[in-house]
Amino acid sequence: MEAGILAIWNGCAPEGEAEYERWYMAEHLPERVGVPGFRFGRRYEAVSAAPKYFTFYETDTPEVLASAPYVARLGNPTTWTRRVMPFFRDMNRTVCHKAASFGGLIGAHAVSLRFRRRPDAAEAAKFRAALLGDIQACPGVAAGQLWLAVDLEVPALAAETGLRGRPDDTIGGALVVETSWAEEAVALQSRLRELPGELGFAGEAELGLYRFLCQLSNQGDRT
Question: Core-most of 29, 67, 75, 169, by most CB within 10 Å?
Answer without folding.
Answer: 29
